[in-house]
Structures are given as structure tokens and as C-alpha cells.
Design goal:
The protein is of the alpha+beta class. The protein is built from two helices and two strands; from the N terminus they run αββα. 0% of the residues are buried. The model has no long low-confidence stretch (mean pLDDT 90).
Length: 64
């Protein structure tokens, strides 16, 4: 796992600020269990773009 660059954090902050029409303060935490991707948690919302979550979605679609 790697820490996101300052440019990546700024880009994500800008996208979220535009989407929610609010100022956004980001804090990062590296989870060594995450193979890749990103998981965002804010309020009651979770956006899971991790490799594990995407593999689980693929598995569900294959089985269905």
C-alpha cells in the first residue's frame, strides 16, 4: 500500500467538494489489508473502490 500523492488528494478533494457543494477535509489512512484501490467513508456513506470489493461484485455477477 502506498500513500496517495498530494495531487491525488487535491483532485479527490475538489471532486468531492463539487459533488456535495461543501468544503471537504480529507484524512488518509493506509489499510495494509487493502490490495489496491480506495475506500471513502463519510457520514452514513461508504464508497468502496477497493480491488477486494470489485472482485466480490464480479463474483456475485458470475454466480447470478
Amino acid at each position: 500500500p502506498a500513500e496517495p500523492s498530494a495531487e491525488e488528494i487535491d483532485s479527490l478533494k475538489k471532486l468531492l467538494s463539487e459533488a456535495f457543494k461543501k468544503d471537504v477535509i480529507l484524512s488518509t489512512k493506509i489499510d495494509p489489508n487493502v490490495l489496491g484501490g480506495m475506500k471513502l467513508e463519510f457520514g452514513q456513506y461508504i464508497i468502496d473502490g477497493t480491488v477486494t470489493a470489485n472482485l466480490e461484485k464480479l463474483k456475485y455477477h458470475i454466480i447470478s
